[in-house]
């Protein structure tokens, strides 16, 4: 069995501290931790954090009367003749009470989104799960799930992953979010849509979209996200050679792109770079790897 | 079966998990009021669909699933914008350094020791809900991955990747809080 490298170890440390590793992996990761100080330190930090969270999170006690109140509610149900009586917990509460937070700053999410807008998310990439077998498709019109991962600081880029069974829904979503994005002069050469995006059909289940924008006259940031259950990243794409030495943040792919997006059986890849040319080549290689020319945009 | 019998059974099988559910709800919502509402809703829904519960199966997981769905529905009604996210895990995503990696274990331990209850709550609440729930179930309730996957309805691999990222985000928030209290790792290193 091959020796474990740091990438593999990083992926397994979480399971290690949770006691979820299989025996053979356990042996291999122990061996790796024995000879790699960095990974050993990571493991130590993870384990300490888990212990810490376990202690701190548990410090909550149930209000003493809550059980009785629930009992009363349940008993009250029996007396109701109609199932949809108004006293029986209205299904959608009109508006949950906004709890006042004592002297606390607003929740971070309240400040991140506007900040993102102000910074004008440079690049968004949307991947979507389209129809089921043979393009039959489910009734759409509803965003089934939105997984969002945003990083602003390092590259100023934003990454969105959206899944829907409805292509029109995606278009609307894009228009709303991405519409204002500037177009890049040579967008046409890349087959980009006016919004700066391009949809690449990748099979019956998935599509990928490349979106980009020019950021304040700076070099455009481009992010590319590919998604697909059958998709495997071509070995020669993204290496320094393939990119002609253009710096691409490939190092974190395993960390973030693959791990983060390998959700629900859909593999997604994220690449981000400030080098427009690099991304162009990468996009071209990507399309070539898909064996399909760029399809027109989803709008 | 009379209503009273059914209620009695429900109390024995389901309501005994109140404490676990309340803790989880409190950590999920961040406030006592919201947690109470969430837990009440959860038990109400559970009671109404109690006939769908298979006796002898894992009732706690069943309840967690209802709790999670109820919670997510509420979040939805709060009309959070599509794409809105709170993961203040910025640098961790792409390329940036992780300043914590150079910490000595004892420094790190001391930093965690200085963090306040509010900091832990804020750090948790800063996580997007799908990440928050996974880390709560794993670290507060010590559920095995298999059970978390069942509750959250995601594959085990996703449980792992969410845990990994959630903990990393939490760690950054907590050590940042400690630094604000004046524990400077570099000064001690």
Order of helices and strands of chain A: HHHHHEEEHHEEEHEH
Q: Average pLDDT value of chain B?
A: 81
Number of helices of chain A: 9
User: What's the total count of β strands of chain A?
Assistant: 7
**Cα-atom Rg of chain B, whole angstroms?**
19 Å
Main β-sheet description of chain A: 5 strands, antiparallel
Mean pLDDT of chain A: 49
Helix and strand composition category of chain B: mainly alpha
The percent range for helix content of chain A is: 25-40%
Tally of contiguous helical segments of chain B: 11
The backbone outline of chain A, from C-alpha atoms, is: globular
What distance lies between the first and last C-alpha atoms of chain B, to the nearest angstrom?
68 Å
**Which value, in Å, is the CA radius of gyration of chain A?**
24 Å
- End-to-end Cα distance of chain A, whole Å, is 49 Å
Walk me through what this model shows.
- The complex is a heterodimer of chains A (299) and B (189).
- In chain A, helix 1 crosses helix 2, helix 1 packs parallel to helix 3 and helix 2 packs across helix 3.
- Chain A contains 9 helices and 7 strands.
- Mean pLDDT of chain A is 49; it is low at 81-171, 173-280 and 282-299.
- In chain A, strand 2 (143-150) and strand 3 (158-164) form a beta hairpin.
- In chain A, the strands form 2 sheets. In chain A, strands 1, 4, 5, 6 and 7 form a 5-stranded antiparallel beta sheet that branches.
- Chain A has helices spanning 6-17, 23-35, 37-57, 66-79, 108-119, 167-178, 187-190, 253-261, 276-290; strands at residues 128-129, 143-150, 158-164, 197-201, 206-213, 221-228, 267-273.
- The longest helix of chain A has 21 residues, at 37-57.
- Chain A starts with 5 loop residues before the first helix and ends in a 9-residue tail after the last helix.
- By secondary structure, chain A is of the alpha+beta class.
- Chain B has 189 residues and is mainly alpha-helical.
- In chain B, 70% of the residues lie in helices and 0% in strands.
- Chain B has helices at 3-13, 18-29, 32-48, 59-77, 90-93, 105-114, 117-126, 129-140, 145-152, 156-180, 185-188.
- Residues 79-96 of chain B have low confidence and may be disordered.
- Chains A and B meet through helix 1, helix 3, helix 4, helix 5 and strand 2 of A and helix 1, helix 2, helix 3, helix 4 and helix 5 of B.
């Amino acid at each position: 069995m091959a020796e474990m490298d740091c990438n593999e170890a990083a992926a397994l440390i979480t399971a290690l501290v949770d006691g979820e590793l299989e025996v053979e992996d356990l042996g291999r990761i122990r061996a790796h931790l024995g000879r790699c100080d960095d990974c050993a330190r990571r493991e130590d930090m993870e384990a300490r954090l888990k212990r810490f969270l376990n202690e701190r999170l548990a410090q909550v006690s149930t209000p003493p009367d809550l059980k009785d109140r629930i009992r009363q509610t349940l008993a009250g149900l029996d007396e109701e003749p109609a199932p949809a009586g108004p006293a029986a917990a209205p299904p959608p509460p009109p508006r949950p009470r906004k709890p006042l937070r004592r002297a606390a700053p607003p929740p971070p999410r309240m400040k991140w989104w506007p900040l993102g807008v102000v910074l004008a998310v440079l690049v968004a990439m949307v991947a979507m799960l389209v129809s089921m077998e043979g393009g039959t498709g489910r009734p759409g019109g509803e965003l089934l799930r939105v997984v969002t991962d945003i990083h602003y600081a390092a590259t100023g880029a934003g990454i969105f992953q959206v899944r829907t069974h409805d292509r029109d829904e995606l278009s609307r979503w894009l228009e709303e979010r991405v519409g204002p994005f500037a177009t890049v002069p040579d967008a046409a050469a890349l087959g980009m849509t006016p919004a700066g995006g391009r949809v690449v059909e990748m099979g019956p289940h998935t599509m990928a979209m490349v979106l980009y924008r020019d950021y304040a006259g700076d070099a455009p940031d481009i992010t590319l996200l590919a998604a697909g259950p059958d998709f495997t990243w071509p070995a020669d794409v993204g290496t320094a050679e393939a990119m002609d030495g253009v710096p691409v943040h490939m190092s974190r792919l395993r960390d973030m792109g693959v791990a983060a997006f390998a959700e629900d059986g859909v593999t997604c890849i994220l690449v981000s770079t400030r080098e427009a040319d690099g991304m162009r080549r990468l996009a071209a290689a990507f399309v070539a790897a898909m064996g399909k020319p760029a399809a027109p945009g989803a709008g | 079966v009379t209503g009273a019998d059914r209620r009695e059974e429900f109390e024995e099988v389901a309501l005994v998990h109140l404490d676990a559910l309340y803790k989880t709800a409190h950590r999920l919502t961040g406030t006592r009021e919201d947690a109470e509402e969430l837990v009440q809703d959860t038990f109400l829904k559970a009671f109404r669909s109690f006939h769908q519960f298979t006796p002898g199966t894992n009732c706690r997981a069943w309840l967690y699933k209802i709790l999670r769905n109820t919670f997510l529905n509420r979040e939805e009604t709060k009309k959070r914008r599509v794409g809105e996210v709170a993961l203040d895990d910025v640098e961790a995503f792409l390329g940036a350094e992780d300043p914590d990696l150079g910490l000595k274990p004892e420094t790190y331990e001391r930093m965690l020791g200085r963090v306040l209850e509010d900091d832990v709550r804020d750090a948790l609440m800063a996580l997007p809900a799908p990440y928050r729930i996974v880390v709560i179930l794993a670290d507060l309730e010590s559920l095995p991955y298999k059970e978390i996957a069942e509750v959250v309805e995601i594959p085990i691999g996703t449980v792992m990747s969410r845990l990994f990222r959630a903990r990393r985000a939490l760690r950054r928030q907590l050590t940042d809080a400690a630094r604000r209290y004046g524990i400077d790792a570099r000064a001690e290193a």
